[in-house]
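thought: fold this chain, then report.
action: predict
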Amino acid sequence: MRPFSSRATTPTAAERVRSILAAAHSMSVVSDGLHTEVRRLDGTGAMGHFHLHAPAEDPSAQSTARIPVRLELTDIAPTPVRDRLRARVTVTGLLAAPYSAEATESTCMEFGQAVLEDAEGRSYVTLHALEATGLDPIATSEAGMLTHLVDDHSELIPLLLRLIRPHPDRGMLRALPVAMDRYGLTLRLEYPRTHRDVRLPFKTPVTDIDQAGPQIHALLATARRLSHPNQLLA
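observation:
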């Protein structure tokens, strides 16, 4: 049986942005010279406050004065890993009227561009790509699932380490889950002066949140089989 490697299918930039917009608990809105911190998104994510739409094609609408706006969001790992900042997302566009954090309905925002910045670099995402991307079914449940794993089932993490090839170096201080998406689970291996992330891919991508638990159990079952004496040389 072949062990898992760090090379696995990962979310696209559009999927990452869509997940961060949906799961965010807070964001910064910069518009009309004002910097507003929106700290309670009430479980609706950023898109519960802003409705993104394509630039107006009507010349008369384009001539109307509009206000530049920038949404800033940070993606923070829910577990106590080293370097918890996973990504930053910036969405720019235009508003027809000044932004108000007290608005009871979502604000229409003419989309400009979305930028994802993470350890891999910078990626630009179009509105078409966002609209064509389905929301990862794990996105809004990820934080609760990872903290549950760490707080209530931490004994399973060393078992998951058996899936990694080559095996983690002996100098490793600890390992913690740092992310989970429809494609798999990511562990962060921490060393005295550095760290690295390892992907443990699911057998098939999750299409419904109810599939996440069985996929984790499948990873654990594979790890147990790898530990069997007859599999050590596989």
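thought: worth noting. The helical segments are 13-23, 59-63, 127-131, 142-152, 156-160, 212-227.
final: tokens above.
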